[in-house]
Amino acid sequence: xxxxxxxxxxxxxxxxxxxxxxxxxxxxxxxxxxxxxxxxxxxxxxxxxxxxxxxxxxxxxxxxxxxxxxxxxxxxxxxxxxxxxxxxxxxxxxxxxxxxxxxxxxxxxxxxxxxxxxxxxxxxxxxxxxxxxxxxxxxxxxxxx
Length: 145
Prior knowledge:
The chain is an all-alpha fold. The protein has helices at residues 3-38, 46-51, 55-94, 96-124, 126-144.
């Protein structure tokens, strides 16, 4: 076999693969359409629902269903919250040392940044600060005399 034959065979196999892929796609698309078509929900006539006189009863019924659902899930929710709390507590106790080290490093970095900022601020505003201090001293001297 030479190179042209190999290219031709490769091209044929690629086209065959594309045809199979397209057929599979169309088949799955048709199946999805069929399943969604069978799941059509019965439409609600809101005129009848709202103005037939039993609107208050419908609201009570809905509220009752919601309450029952929440009560059925209440224990599971409480259990998950407790589980999360215990898991968090366990994590903090296990990693206490590393957290404290990290916190210390973080505070040290913040202090260093603050020192640098203060130095820079003082350097920039040195003349203003000295002038203000001089005025305050003169003011205090005048008040004392």
